[in-house]
Amino acid sequence: MKKRKNLLSEYYNKINSFDIFNSQLPEFPYIADIELTNFCNLKCLMCNQVYMKREKGFMSEELFRKIADECIENNVALRLIGLGEPFLHIIRYRTYDIGVKSKICCQLNSAYLSLKEIKGRIQDFAINRDGLRVPVAPGLFDYHIDWSGVKQFQIVQKQKGILQLKISLNEKSENEFNKISTRLLNDLYIVFGEQFIFNISYCDRIENTSRGKFRYFIQEMK
Q1: How far apart are CA 68 and CA 77, in angstroms?
Q2: Cα separation of 73 and 28, whole Å?
Q3: Could you count the other beta carbons within 10 Å of the beta carbon of residue 41?
Q4: Helix or strand holding residue 39 (H, E)
Q5: At 69, which helix (H) or strand (E)?
Q6: What would the pLDDT profile of 133-181 be if each residue is shown by its tens digit?
Q7: Pairing verdict, β 150-159 and 162-169
């Protein structure tokens, strides 16, 4: 069996051989750890992400490109790690392309394969008040949101930074709309922070698409 090569070995060797007492510190680090997002759906038992109190969010593509360009120019390895899952960010579609074109060494932690290109699925991203794309699924299906009493739900976006949440309720919960909507609003703002304004409305039923599929999020912004 062919032995796998650690792509970061060159950089780790530099660090291990560095004489901190008799050498001048380099102008740039050998390795840069970048946290693209602190959203995560892996729920690893040993991770302290569950205890994280800071607001969840995403690094802008502009900032990431600036960091990546500096790392490329100064031969710095990138590790996309932290308390989040890098592939949940929209710029994951472009991150690996930058690495390939620039021959930059890049390591990340994720449950998914590294993809050079991906098409479609832009409809699964909402546009926050700053005009940035935010993946909806990680937030909606985050364990912190209590969907009890809700039979169906669907989010529709027609304006930047505003999300309309439509819910239908179980028979036992039909008279508890105000209580459930208040609870959901609180949970949604905990997960999404101040990126969006949420409006909740009640409906008897949420229809499937013409193909018979159910869509939990509909992006109507052009």
Answers
A1: 9
A2: 10
A3: 16
A4: none
A5: helix 61-73
A6: 888 887 887 667 888 999 999 999 999 999 999 999 988 887 889 999 9
A7: antiparallel
Q: How many CB atoms lie within 10 A of CB 173?
A: 16
Place of tokens 């992400």: 49
pTM greater than 0.85: no
Q: Which pair of structure tokens corresponds to residue 179?
A: 């209580």
Q: How far apart are CA 148 and CA 24, in angstroms?
A: 59
Beta bridge partners of residue 152, listed in sequence order: 168
**pLDDT reading at 99 higher than 80:** no
Output the pLDDT for position 142.
65
Q: How many helices (H) and strands (E) does the chain have?
A: 5, 9
In what helix (H) or strand (E) does residue 180 lie, and over which residues does it extend? Answer: helix 177-192
E strands within the chain? 31-34, 77-80, 106-108, 125-127, 133-135, 150-159, 162-169, 197-202, 217-219
Amino acid identity, residue 169?
L
